[in-house]
Amino acid sequence: MASENVSELTTDNFQAQVLDSDKPVLVDFWAEWCMPCRMLAPTIDQVAEDFKDRVKVGKVDTDSNQALGVQFEISAIPTVIIFKGGQVFKKFVGLTNKADLDAALESALSA
């Protein structure tokens, strides 16, 4: 379910792609069967397009990467976490609107 500006993140590449990133990273924790996750996908794609030169955007399929779900205490999906400097900067649980994601990313970029 990744697009041109959205990477597929897994247990194998999460450290390098997210925690070691020099840019803020927005990570969408989702699952194929989750209807709210599907509803959020176009928003994530638009955020990825709008911020493509300044932040990384990726998706974690929680069914295939359960260890990441446990590590970051994902209790409901969709959950979106913005990471900065390898740490959780902001966490959104449930459907989130683009304005809130944009504001959080701008905050991460200026922090």
List the helices and strands and how they pair.
Elements lengths: L6 E3 L4 H6 L5 E6 L4 H16 L5 E6 L4 H6 L7 E6 L2 E7 L4 H13 L1
Parallel strand pairs: 1-3, 2-3
Antiparallel strand pairs: 2-4, 4-5
The number of helical segments is 4
Looking at CATH, which topology would you report?
A: Glutaredoxin
Distance between the termini: 30 Å
Query: Helical percent range?
Result: 25-40%
* Uncertain residue segments: none
Which CATH first-tier class would you pick? Answer: Alpha Beta
Specify the CATH homologous superfamily.
Glutaredoxin
Largest sheet: 5 strands, mixed
Based on the coordinates given, report the CATH architecture: 3-Layer(aba) Sandwich
Going across the biggest sheet, name each strand in turn.
1-3-2-4-5
Structural class, judged by helices and strands? alpha/beta
What string, H for helix and E for strand, traces the elements in order?
A: EHEHEHEEH
Query: Structurally, how many domains make up the residues?
Result: 1
Instruction: Give me the count of strands.
Output: 5
Mean of pLDDT: 96
Shape: globular
* CA-based gyration radius: 12 Å
Summarize the structure.
This protein is α/β, with parallel strands linked by helices. It is 37% helix and 25% strand.
Q: Explain this structure to me?
A:
- The protein is of the alpha/beta class and 111 residues long.
- The chain has a single domain, classed as Glutaredoxin (3-Layer(aba) Sandwich).
- The protein has four helices and five strands.
- It has helices at 14-19, 35-50, 66-71, 98-110; strands at residues 7-9, 25-30, 56-61, 79-84, 87-93.
- It has a five-stranded mixed beta sheet.
- A hairpin with a 2-residue loop joins strand 4 and strand 5 (87-93).
- The longest helix has 16 residues, at 35-50.
- The termini are far apart.
- The model has no long low-confidence stretch (mean pLDDT 96).
